[in-house]
Structure formats: C-alpha cells, structure tokens
Amino acid sequence: MRRVLVVGLAATGAAVVERLVGEGCDLVVVEDRPGGDAYQARAAAARALGAEIVEAPSPGDVASLAASVDLVVPSPLVAATHPAIVAAYDRGVPVRSEIDLAAERTPVPIVAVTGTNGKSTVTTLIAAMLEASGRRAIAAGNIGRALLDAVDDDTDYFVVEVSSFQLAFAESFRPRVAVLLGVAPDHLDWHGSFEDYVAAKARVFEHQRAGDLLVFDADDAVAADLAGRAPARTIGVSIDPSAVTGFRRVDDVLVDADGKEIVRLDAMGRALPHDCTNALAAAAAAFDVGATHAGVEEALRVYTTLPHRVALVREHGGVRYYDDSKATNPHAALHALSSFDSVVLLAGGRNKGLDLAALTEGAAHLKAVVGFGEAAPEIEVAFAGIRPVVRADSMRAAVRAAADLAKPGDVVLLSPGCASFDAYSGYAARGDDFASEVRAL
Predict the structure, then answer these.
(1) pLDDT (tens digit per residue) in 333-357
(2) N or C: more exposed end of the chain, with fewer CB within 10 A?
C-alpha cells in the first residue's frame, strides 16, 4: 500500500485525502496551524476516511514523516523550505502538486491559465465562451474548487486557474492549452526571488508537446521571452497598435489571428486596456478547443467583471470611486492606474517582499496618494517629492482623505499594490470595507 503525506488540510489537501484514500493509499496529514470550524470539519472527514492527522508537529517529526512515505503532496502556499519538503528532497521522496495528480486522472482536455494578474477573469471567460458555444466546461483550480475534486464530473473541458504555488511542485502537468498572462514580481516572500517565481510560471507549458498550444501576452516582455522556449505551438495576444500578428486590437475592434472580427469594444461590458488583453487571451484559448465565433462574442457581450477588480462603487460629488482591492501587487495597480487620467490612489497593506517604488511608474496618472496599513511608510517614501502623500490609519480615514483630495472629474481608486492580511481576512473584505466607507460619504 502506497503511503502518502499531505502537507496542509485546506480545501486542496482535503480533496487529495479523499481521492487517494479512495484509491487505497495510506494517508497521513500534517497541519501546522490547526483551528477554526472549517478545519475541524475537514479533519473530522479525513479521520472518518481513515487518514492520520498530525497537528502542529515539530520540524523533526515532520522530517521523519516525510522520510517514511512514498509521496509528498503539498497544499498551495506550503513553501519549498517547509521541513516536509526539505526532508523529502533530501531522501529522494517524490514531491508533486495536486494538479499533477488531477491531470493524470482525467481524459478531459485541460485549459490552464496562469500569470501575475487576470487569471480568474480569463479562466471564467474561457469557460463562459465554451458554454456559449454549446460545450460543457468547468472552471476549477486556484479559482475555488480543487481540480482533483472535479475530475470525475461530466464535462467536455476543464478550465483551470493555476498559481505559481501549485506550479512550483508540478512535475508532469500538461494542459492541452496553456495561457500565460503578464509576469511581474509577486509573492517574492514565498518564492525567494523573481527568477524562481518566473521559473514556476514557466512550468505551465514545460510538459506540453508540439500539438498543444501556448497563448501568451505578447505585450509583456517576460511572457514573450518565456514563450520563445515553449515546446508547443504559440500564439501571442496584443493591444499594441503596431501589432500585425496574433490576436490583437485594431482600432475599436478585437480580431483573431486571421484578422476576423471577434467583438467591437463598444459591445463589451467594459473595455479597459487589461480587459482587452484578457478578452483576446481567452478567445485565443477558447477557439483552439472548439469555441465558435458566435459563442465567444456572446460571452464577451454579457460577461460581468468579477468583484473587486476596478469595480465602480459609486459616483459622489462628480468623483468616481473604484474598488480594485484584488490588486495585491504593483503590476496590477499600474494596470488599473493606466485606465484613468487623474487618480487619487489608495495604496498599502502588507507588502509581499516587492518594490513598491514601482508604483511611481504610474505617476503621470496620479493626482495624489493615500497610504494605509503596514506599508504606508513605504508608500510615503516611494512618492516623496513625486506626488502629494497622506497617511491614514484606517480605511475610513483613507476614504475621507481621498474624498478631500479629489475634485469633480477625478477618480478615487483603491488599488493597494499589497496584500490585505495586515488588517483583513482577504482582499474581498478589504474591498467591502472600502465600498462601505464610500457609500457612507
């Protein structure tokens, strides 16, 4: 009987336990931070299946466990420095991502989407395009439901959002179509360096073959460089007016590689620059697995932007207030800034080991900055002498300071460039707090 160590018992770990126990494996789970009702429910379910749960073990105990098993499966966010991973590598024990296990267990074609920003949007768009074309598609992975939990579902395609955390341990993952969006510094506190982060992203196409497809953002230098090494067919997407190949924007129309119209921008619910890039990437992927032009156009016409992604909260006193709390790195914030001419930016939170001075690249679009959270001092230093900066000790204070700085015609934009965990349970809670304070003005 094969013995497997699962590191972490969040949703992904629970899916691995259920699947592998059902296949006759002997499962042991280590959980460093047990607690909370959701965890207790998952632990009870795992024990009922016969899995052994080891809670808050010492590094030595974890290392001993890892040396006694045939396979280690880390949950997303479990770093390569974890004692279980280090011990496994030292002893030659295989370490594999859940997406590896899932891909091996389904004959259904997989479309995988990664990149620094836009993953969830492109994943849901591709699924919507396939559904509108009469194909059955299930969106899974980092977007919410573990792929291993979905592999037995009756569908024609899986559209999977894959993070750098999942890809870092992927040893065989081979999607039929891979989508590589822009790659910019993020999660360096986990990966250790930008080079390691980029290497993880590149694993999305590493095991593809000549008949597979890689769709990439041709306007992003890192993604374009990586695409040059891909073993599969490649096709770029671009909103650069000078682009003459690939899926691209031509004036106010998005077109495919043959120059055929996909959709007019005025027919889309929103057509900011990053919306166009996302739409082109989704269309290129969807067409390759059987979507129709009618289905793709219909999906783009009716698609509703996901919450907390440059979402208009309200207009008040001639000022528009936007919630872009999902922007947890400077790259994402710069995309949002480029969409507007005169912005009062709310930036801050918990830095993820990134250079927040990168935000100053959007200075031409900025009127002023309100810094908040743990990173407020870094924000203040970054913009010193470049744009006026106000520091706020709460979201209420930040919103009111921004309202005082903004004039009719301006935009107040919450696009923090940082994680939310200094004060919130996640970016959604931060965005909801912002919206609440805006509505209270």
Answers:
(1) 999 999 999 999 999 999 999 999 9
(2) N
pTM as predicted = 0.92
Q: According to the model, what pLDDT value does residue 328 have?
A: 97
Adjacent-strand bridge partners of 179: 113, 215
**Coil, strand or helix at 195:** helix
Burial of 84 (0-12, 13-18, 19+ CB in 10 A): buried
Q: Give the right CATH number for 99-302 from 3.30.300.30, 2.170.150.70, 1.10.8.100, 3.40.1190.10.
A: 3.40.1190.10
Question: In which band, very low, low, confident or very high, does the pLDDT at 415 lie, cut at 50, 70 and 90?
Answer: very high
Evaluated on CA atoms 363, 417, 215, 274, the torsion sign reads negative
Q: What residue ranges do the domains of the chain occupy?
A: 3-95, 99-302, 311-439
What confidence category does residue 305 fall into, taking pLDDT thresholds of 50, 70 and 90?
confident
Residue 272 · residue 415 · CB < 8 Å = no
CATH superfamily of the domain spanning 311-439: Mur ligase, C-terminal domain (3.90.190.20)
∠ CA 29-31-35, nearest 5°, is 130
Counting every residue written for the chain, the total comes to 441
